[in-house]
Amino acid sequence: MRLIQKLFFSVLSVAFVSLFSFAFAETVSFEVTLDPSTITAGEFTDLQITAIWDDGNTDTDYTDDIFIQIDGFELNDPDVELPGKWFGYFETSDQWKKIYSKGITIKKAGTYTVTVVDTFLNTVKGSATLTVNQEWSTPSLGTLEVTSPTVDSILTSDTVNVTATTSLPNTPIVLYIDEQKVQEGLSDANGDVVMSVSGISPGSHVLVMNAVDLWWAIVATSDEIPFSYEVDHGSLFVWLELSPSNAVIEWEKITAKITTSDVVDTVTIKIWEWAPLPTSKVSKGVFQKELLMEAVGTYPVWLWLSVDGSVTDMMDVDTITVSQDTQKILTLTSAPDSSDDKATLSWTYEGKIKYFKVSYGMNASNLDLSLTTTTPTGKILLTDPTKTRYAQVTPVDKDGNTTGEASETIQIDALRDPDPVCGNQIVEPGEECDDGNTTNWDGCSAVCRIQASAICGNRRIEIWEECDDGNINNNDGCSSICKIEQAQCGNGRLEIWEECDDGNTSDDDTCNSSCKISQPKDIPKECETGGIDISTKVVWWKYYLYRSPVSNAEKYLVYRQETRPGTIGDMRLVGETTDPLFEYPFDPNAAVDQYAWYAVEAVCDHSSPSQLGDFTKVKVWPEETIMMIMLSVLLLWGMVKLQGRRGA
């Protein structure tokens, strides 16, 4: 019995301490704002309620219910319009500020106090003054006549344009179709009303209009106007566009683009005896389909247009002509290449040709050499540039079989005179060298013979020689006359003056764009921060910020501010860590609840820091936690005493 009494008084003590703390805790009040604060009877004003602490800071966690009242009026008084039928409540999304747009109006003139009560404590938390200038006069009943559409009219569009006249200018007007409210408007100063409603379904409908006052009481109504909407099938189809054209060769694709009225739901296309094909809706009133034309022939195009389940058949809107794939080489020309032993051929053709066979030789009737290419150009090697050649191009398949008409055989003239010209910088048959002049004793004589003073190819750089690689071959970095040739970086061949050549000119590998050995550039690692949120954890009575690890993050920067910041730039850096936990200050001796705002950034390789989640509000001393600790200690003390008595 004593143990029960002790436990009772312990719990009572904890409750007393809790009530004592609550009584002296900081309280919340409301800042009530009316905009405007002076209105004419029947006009509306905006109501804004802000929850603030006694120290002036906003209470971002306030979510209690409220009661709004105006002195001199009873609950549900018809002369007062209040938001939520006098009752309201704060939601988490309101974030300490509740706004009622056009929330209050009063019919009676006078000066009134708008009071906001906290329903949990049943205490007034804030108020504001509203002045109403004059008495509300109920609008007199008036007339309202619909002038368009007329009774039993038939529409050919899904849009109904409504016009009306009323004896009540500047009055709210509500439009109903088939007893459903579809639009609200206002009559002008002359009493004219203009409205437009789209998307009317085919069939019969009934239209009516009401004029209402600010309290939605009907002050005028029109006659019922029956009308109907019938689809104009002739106006559904606009045009068909076939791209690239309506004339193609076999196995070529055509794109059909169908433009229709906006009311068309689906379009089906039919080509001759093919099965109907559904199209894809690209945008409102625009449909598209890609067609593969396999066989030669002429094909009519039909369209089926569907509107609300009703199908319109559009026959023979166009014709597609598919011709046989006639492959033919039209022209063939030649031109000398920049080198002295090749000629460049180029040709034009018609049809879908994938492979070209280039035949050439010394005799026009015996073209004994050939090559195959997929492009309309080719180069042929002339083993003797002083001799005339002949060439021809033929369409073939991948196996070399002829598939079309070949070109005419053309003559390729000799690229140079058969007699060598010393001094033209071209080593021609009969010449040992040609250095571009006829000067003796410069390594190449006046008759283009190698002089003994400079023997090219002996691996010794002698007078007049720029290089000597031990041979007299061209295109190896050192020419046949021992002149330096320009190395081509990126051709995959290691040439003179190159340290490497990996077949490209990229700087991101071990051989750079100058063919010098280099270290590859580091490839930045992406820092994946999407969907990372910040939360708190308690581990062995210590308080931590926690977030999921961010891949490729080097470290995390932690920022703090006592009030909610606008940006992370407003906050101060309080620490950094490489772990997903960061201990934040917690003061168990604080007199009242305290909060702080935290944010975390991830610092990633080769990129700017990225903020993780939103700003996190942390309570640095939760009173209820301390109370629970006290209660737990008292209960534990009682159990120990009880155990002691049993042992005795």
Please specify the SSE layout and strand pairing.
Elements: H1 2-23, E1 28-35, E2 38-39, E3 45-53, E4 65-70, E5 80-81, E6 87-89, E7 97-106, E8 110-118, E9 123-132, E10 144-148, E11 153-155, E12 160-166, E13 172-177, E14 180-186, E15 192-197, E16 203-212, E17 218-221, E18 225-229, E19 237-243, E20 247-249, E21 252-260, E22 266-271, E23 277-278, E24 280-283, E25 286-293, E26 297-307, E27 310-323, E28 328-336, E29 342-350, E30 355-361, E31 369-373, E32 377-381, E33 389-396, E34 410-412, E35 534-539, E36 542-547, E37 553-561, E38 572-577, E39 581-583, E40 595-604, E41 610-619, H2 623-647
Can you put this structure into words, describing what you see?
The chain is mainly β and 648 residues long. 7% of the residues lie in helices and 42% in strands. Among the domains are: 28-132, Immunoglobulin-like (Sandwich); 144-229, Immunoglobulin-like, CATH 2.60.40.10; 240-323, Immunoglobulins (Immunoglobulin-like, Sandwich), CATH 2.60.40; 328-412, Immunoglobulins (Immunoglobulin-like, Sandwich); 534-625, Immunoglobulin-like (Sandwich). Strands 11, 13, 14, 16, 17 and 18 form a six-stranded mixed sheet that branches. The relative contact order is 0.06.
